[in-house]
Amino acid sequence: MRRMVRSVALAMLCGNLVACAAQASTPSAVPIEQEPAHRLVLQNEHVRVFEVSLPAGDETLWHEHLHDGVSVRLTDATVEDQPKDGKAETFRMRRGEVAYGATPTARIHRVRNVGETAFRNVYIELLTLHDASTDSAVAAAPDPRVVFENDRVRALRRILAPGESTDMHMHASEGVAVPATAGRLKISYPDGTTRSVEMKAGAVQWIEPGTTHRLKNIGDAGIEIVDIELK
């Protein structure tokens, strides 16, 4: 009888250990806004914008994405992306690169910086709902500045050499301007007013539709800006 009781107790213990081991192997994910490497820098009814910073050798917590999003890389870096249910993949990032991530269902993952340089990224989370089945990348864009386009966003890259200016132009769509490099800009408006700004890489700006201005690089190094226009 004692032997039977011990056997039952042992079986229950083993069962509990197996259950505990299974739970331990299942990642517990936090919402993206609670992941320490993701710092919320802008939020409105259309987007939430996070600046992501991950030193070499560090990794994020397991975290959950509920919406589609656009990433603009701020540094060259090598990272390993580990999804909850899938195989880890290694990616080499390039400064100024634009990537789009569709999230038809909740996505849980973590990111490890497996390179020798810090990984910095601006992640623009799109809050409006849509039918993911309608997404389609545009094969050829008439504007040479367009680096990515689908049914939700258009990404344009502007590069200004020292002393170079854009034309006076109007932004027809709302969106997010992402400086991929630091620099000094002179901004001119149709009424003749101007202002100068010290621009930091990753210091995003929300653009209202109808915004009209001219940009001039008044620094001594090239400036790269990626505009993410919403549709």
Question: Can you walk me through this structure?
Answer:
This protein has 231 residues and is mainly β. The protein has two domains: 30-126, Jelly Rolls, CATH 2.60.120.10; 135-230, Jelly Rolls, CATH 2.60.120.10. It is 10% helix and 45% strand. It has one helix and 19 strands. The protein has one helix at 2-25, and strands at residues 30-31, 38-43, 47-54, 63-65, 69-73, 77-83, 89-93, 98-101, 107-113, 119-126, 146-149, 153-160, 169-170, 175-179, 183-188, 194-199, 205-207, 212-217, 223-230. The strands form four sheets. Strands 1-4-9-6-7 form a five-stranded mixed beta sheet, with no helix packed on it. Strands 2-3-10-5-8 form a five-stranded antiparallel beta sheet, with no helix packed on it. Strands 11-12-19-14-17 form a five-stranded antiparallel beta sheet, with no helix packed on it. Mean pLDDT is 87; it is low at 1-15, 17-24 and 132-141.
Which key terms come to mind for this protein?
231 residues, 5-stranded antiparallel sheet, Jelly Rolls, disordered N terminus, mainly beta, 5-stranded mixed sheet, globular, 10% helix, 1 helix, 45% strand, 2 domains
Low-confidence residue ranges: 1-15, 17-24, 132-141
Radius of gyration using CA atoms only: 23 Å
| Helix segment tally | 1
CATH class of the largest domain: Mainly Beta
In CATH terms, the superfamily of the largest domain is Jelly Rolls
The overall number of domains is: 2
Major sheet size, sense and barrel closure:
5 strands, mixed
Using DSSP, what is the number of strands?
Answer: 19
How large is the share of residues in beta strands? 35-45%
In terms of structural class, how would the helical and strand content be classed? mainly beta
Give the name of the CATH architecture of the largest domain: Sandwich
